[in-house]
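Continuing the batch. This is chain 6 of the set; chains 1 through 5 are on the previous pages. Same settings as before, nothing changed between runs. Recording input and output for traceability.
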Amino acid sequence: MVTQQEGYEGVIDVDADGVNAVDTTCDVLADWLLDQRPGVVAEFEQNRKELFELRKKHAKGFGSARLRRSAGTPGKYLIISFYATANDARAAQTVPEIAAFMAAHPYSLYAPTPPVIEAYGVVHRLPGQ
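Output for chain 6:
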């Protein structure tokens, strides 16, 4: 079976101070496909940076967040977030500062449909990964 591979370029990385990815046990992936309207890409990237910084400041168990831009599909993005636990990942959306930010910046400002979000429990990470 042939599987399609897609390359991504790094756009934004926000890491919590003193947290090592090896210590996180929940990865959250969000696939976005943005509108092709002028200005959406720059607004989305700035918005995600602000959101990542809020999560770093206010979300318990936040480890890091990564924004990746598809190298082959215009407007396609992948966000990878690392949290200490699955409960921390779920609770991050309910932190008042983050919930208010999300309400003020709904997905519909950037995309015609919500992102596809999946969370994974990490069984084991290799050191240095």
